[in-house]
Design a protein that fits this description.
The chain is α/β, with parallel strands linked by helices. 38% of the residues lie in helices and 17% in strands. The structure holds iron/sulfur cluster.
Length: 471
């Protein structure tokens, strides 16, 4: 079968954690989920084309043209969070033009498979991992077989949505390596990356902590074997990738495993720069020094707030003292630091925001990212909001029963506009300092480059029909 996977653009001002400027200009990330799916599809003998309409800056019409040439039998989309309704607009458009089965996957399917499958322009939903279910579904579609007994999918039958939940959790070690060869890796970057081609990687999934605003604690922690992680590094190296951002929620959770990975990278002479995310309570000098030797150049820490009460209330399990010590150790090990902060926590006040900004400015941080709090399905915070509203907003939105709107912010006395103003103030306070001027210039260059690419679009190899669709 010929399968096209589309990374459709989206922008939802109500549910974006980042301010628009950061989201629009400061990064383009490779669609990692679709890259895994592409490898799974190819492993089973099918042909697959990834169309990254975000990175390639493609319109619906341009994607339609590519699909006409490619002649896809099946088209897939990924829905990471439920509010990306633009992805639905794209799917509707493509369904009208091609009338081939439309398959949806992505994180949102774990929470709302029925709602997603109930849309008439969506034929099948892959619930969670595509590893087992998608090959079976493609085989059934190709050979006109029964799909009723396939686990891990949702579909419509006689006007009713049938849900076959997956029987087991994904074994992260059974996943193939993501299909990086099918993408133009030069298109991806993040403002804090220093080398191109740049890519992202996952070496573990889930989290053992239960912060109230984050859904990741719902998923059990699982790690990929050391040899698989190192092999993926090696593959990236051979492909010419120069920098990798490891997206694990806490790469340092199992330090022995991290040390083994680092030793292997050094032993094999893999010269790639990489960055990772970690909790501040999981660092020690010896591990960080080894990481530095293995090519790590920066660690991103979830600091969240500069107010002890808020850290406690959100069940983050860290204190300001632990944060300070971790950052000092990181700098001593020769690594750069980036802190993630959230403005608009439960019980947040102007005073606690000021405390957070001052704390961020005093810490030995090279970069800081300030998000505003958004409510995500699967979090304790959303459960509270759901109770207050008396209905499940995301569920109704996905079924098309209600329009996109802002959810009431009942957990703080500050309103949405004020929180966003504080986020901008936090960025200005942090970056408009003498030592950050080179970074500001880098940001300006990136914005100009992105804007230039935008107005000169049309260079995509996909648009010119040069897709290297291969098995
Ligand atoms: S914020 Fe970090 S530590 Fe807390 S649950 Fe999420 S991933 Fe885990």
């Amino acid at each position: 079968m010929r399968v096209a996977l589309i990374n459709a653009p989206y922008y939802d001002p109500n549910f974006m954690e980042n301010i628009k400027f950061v989201e629009k200009y400061l990064r383009i990330l490779p669609p990692l989920g679709l890259m895994y799916v592409s490898s799974i599809i190819k492993e089973h003998g099918h042909d697959c084309l990834i169309i990254d309409a975000v990175a390639e800056n493609l319109s619906k019409k341009q994607v339609e043209k590519i699909l006409k040439k490619y002649k896809a039998d099946v088209i897939g989309f990924s829905l990471v969070v439920p509010t990306r309704s633009q992805v639905f607009d794209w799917a509707k458009y493509i369904k009208e033009k091609f009338r081939v089965p439309i398959i949806f996957g992505g994180y949102a399917t774990l929470y709302y498979p029925e709602e997603i499958a109930s849309n008439d322009f969506i034929d099948y939903v892959i619930i969670g991992s595509a590893r087992k279910s998608l090959p079976k579904l493609l085989e059934a579609l190709e050979n006109n077989l029964e799909i009723d007994k396939i686990d891990g999918i949702a579909f419509k039958k006689d006007g009713k949505v049938i849900i076959n939940y997956p029987k087991d959790f994904e074994d992260i070690n059974s996943l193939p390596f993501p299909d990086r060869k099918s993408l133009n890796n030069n298109l991806y970057y993040s403002i804090i990356s220093e080398n191109r081609p740049y890519s992202v990687m996952i070496t573990s999934s889930g989290c053992i902590y239960k912060c109230d605003f984050c859904p990741m604690g719902k998923f059990p922690y699982k790690e990929r074997e050391v040899n698989k992680v190192v092999e993926e590094f090696e593959k990236c190296y051979k492909l010419g990738i120069k920098e990798i951002d490891i997206f694990d929620d806490n790469f340092l959770f199992n330090k022995e495993r991290v040390k083994e990975i680092c030793r292997e990278i050094i032993r094999k002479g893999i010269k790639i720069k990489w960055t990772c995310r970690a909790r501040v309570d999981s660092v020690d000098y010896e591990t960080l020094k080894l990481m530095k030797e293995a090519g790590c150049r920066m660690i991103f820490y979830g600091i969240e707030s500069g107010n002890e009460e808020i850290l406690k209330r959100e069940h983050k399990g860290i204190t300001k003292q632990i944060i300070k010590e971790a950052l000092e150790i990181t700098k001593r090990a020769g690594l750069k630091t980036m802190g993630f902060f959230i403005i608009g926590h439960r019980g947040e006040s102007r005073e606690s925001i000021k405390e957070t900004i001052q704390f961020a400015c005093k810490l030995p941080l090279d970069y800081a990212q300030f998000f505003h709090m958004v409510v995500k399905p699967g979090t304790k915070l959303y459960e509270e909001i759901k109770k207050e509203m008396g209905y499940d907003y995301f569920s109704e939105l996905l079924k098309g029963n209600i329009k996109m709107k802002k959810l009431p912010i009942t957990w703080t006395k500050l309103n949405d506009k004020e929180i966003k103003r504080w986020v901008i103030k936090a960025y200005i306070s942090f970056y408009f300092r003498k030592k950050h001027i080179p970074k500001l210039l880098k940001i300006l260059c990136l914005v100009l480059k992105r804007w230039y690419n935008h107005i000169t679009k049309g260079n995509s190899s996909l648009q010119n029909g040069h897709f290297a669709s291969s098995k």
